[in-house]
Amino acid sequence: MYTQALDSPTPGVRPADSGDLTALERRFEERIERDEKIEPKDWMPQAYRHTLMRQISQHAHSEIVGMLPEGNWITRAPSLRRKAVLIAKVQDEGGHGMYLYSAAETLGIARAEMIEQLLDGRAKYSSIFNYPTLTWADIGAIGWLVDGAAIMNQIPICRCSYGPYARAMVRICKEESFHQRQGFEIMLALARGTPGQRAMAQDALDRWWWPSIMMFGPSDATSTHTAQSMRWRIKRFTNDELRQKFVDVTVPQAEFLGLKIPDPALRWDEATQHYLTGPIDWSEFKAVLQGNGPCNQERLQARRAAHERGLWVREAAAAYAAKHGGRGAQPRSASDTATARAEGSTP
Amino acid sequence: MSDDWPLFEVFIRARSGLEHKHVGSLHAADERMAIEHARDVYTRRQEGVSIWAVRSSQIVASDPEEAEALFEPARDKVYRHPTFYAIPEEVKNL
User: Fold this and answer.
1) Residues A339, A341, A347, B4: what is their CA dihedral angle, to the nearest 10 degrees?
2) Contact criterion met (CB < 8 Å) for A110 and B4
3) Going by fewer Cβ within 10 Å, which terminus of chain B is more open, N or C?
4) B 20-39 residues with CB below 8 A of A?
5) What phi and psi values does residue A169 have, to the nearest 5 degrees?
6) Backbone angles phi, psi at A124, to 5 degrees
């Protein structure tokens, strides 16, 4: 799924154009200017490092917490096919969290520290996952809208200036497309179903539409860090630009489904060739972000419980590793090891 | 704060005949678990037929600060490339 531009302040951010650049800073800016990738061992300004650490770890947390609303429906999926698909999707989200935690670690923060920040409530994650999944149609709406918004946001991050983040994002984007399509397929099945099923699909769209378009983060007018992130080529488009793209592609999809977007002010604007939405209720967004959404408590409790219940497993694995000198259980076939060894010596 | 399990770098061979390529990293308590986690994290869509996992602490890497000293000397040795040599067009098979 994805992180949103949360724009929490970075301490000690010095504007890049303050005219007070050291030689190292200047060389860094020039590399960015040439669209070179920055790699973990390269010199980078502290503010760049911290911005990325925050953004990538928030993104990772979003993937991990994002498993919860959908995991809620695995045991109640309406068919074995839907169930297998949903398990695969939720497993992907977990995998995406792993890629992203790894990318963040290259900046010099420990995985355990990031997990701790999430569990004690210091770290943010995408506000969208603090909404409940009340019906099966919500699983369709999440795939279609939430993953759709995520893809819109993530594709430009594939070109992010920080190499490990960009590479993680390429992998994630490749996998994300199935998520959106399976969601749309669920919506389509409901939209073509009984009147009750159509109503269920409409109800899910009604509840997920606004939170989905808020996923792109605050509007450009109030987003203080967008300019710096764009100069560093972490971001390639502003929040409003991405939101507009999402609205433009999604409105016709809703029309195809025969569902109504819950925005009475929504209209096609001939002059700009865009769909214009009504005003967004940012007070709701802020409230959810500050911990007052419908499921904030529940989500964090679920993460904490999983972490605590897994403690004995982690301890047992560490004890087992210590006992066996870090080798672990013997591979199933001794000849596999012999082959790996031989290859390792002549790469 | 609990300690992390050791970090491993993961290399995957996509198909037989290709080399193993670095795909990312992960934490595992031991070597066996590193292979099992690599399978779950990096090969959910038949991305590989073979996995190498190497403890990150065992990787020896060049320092970006030394990049110039290491790689610059090759820049002015264009005569190492076949296109450096002018051969008349009528000469074939060269």
Assistant:
1) 120
2) yes
3) C
4) 20, 24-27, 29-35
5) -70, -35
6) -95, 160
Bridge partners of residue A267, in order along the sequence: A276
Cα dihedral sign, B46-B47-B51-B54: negative
Q: Is the dihedral of CA B14, B19, B20, B22 positive or negative?
A: negative
**What would the mean pLDDT of A279-304 be, rounded to a whole number?**
93
CA end-to-end distance (rounded Å), chain B: 65
The answer to whether residue B26 is domain-embedded is yes
Mean pLDDT is lowest, of A206-215, A251-260, B67-76, for B67-76
What is the per-residue pLDDT across A138-173, written as a single tens digit (0 to 9) for each? Answer: 999 999 999 999 999 999 999 999 999 999 999 999
Q: Is residue B40 part of a domain?
A: yes
> Which of A102, A116, A321 lies nearest to residue B24, judging by beta carbons?
A102
Evaluate whether ipTM surpasses 0.90. Answer: no
| C-alpha distance from residue A306 to each of A56, A64, A65, A291, A312 (Å) | 22, 12, 11, 20, 11
Q: Determine contact, residues A289/A129, Cβ cutoff 8 Å.
A: no
Distance CA A205, CA A194 (A): 17
Give SS3 for A63.
helix
pLDDT single digits (tens) A191-228:
999 999 999 999 999 999 999 999 999 988 887 778 88
pTM of the model: 0.88
Return the closest-CA partner of residue A2 out of A141, A150, A170.
A150
Identify whether B45 is part of a domain: yes
Q: Is A274 helix (H, G, I), strand (E, B) or coil?
A: strand
Q: How many domains does chain B have?
A: 1
Q: Domain span at residue B42?
A: 7-80
Which of A81, A80, A188 has its CA nearest to residue A141? A188
**CA distance, residue A279 to nearest chain B CA (Å):** 41
Question: Does B49 touch chain A if contact means CB atoms closer than 8 Å?
Answer: no
Query: If we measure between CA atoms, which residue out of A117, A105, A236 comes closest to residue A168?
Result: A105
The CATH number that applies at residue B59 is 3.10.20.520
* Residue B88 located in a structural domain: no
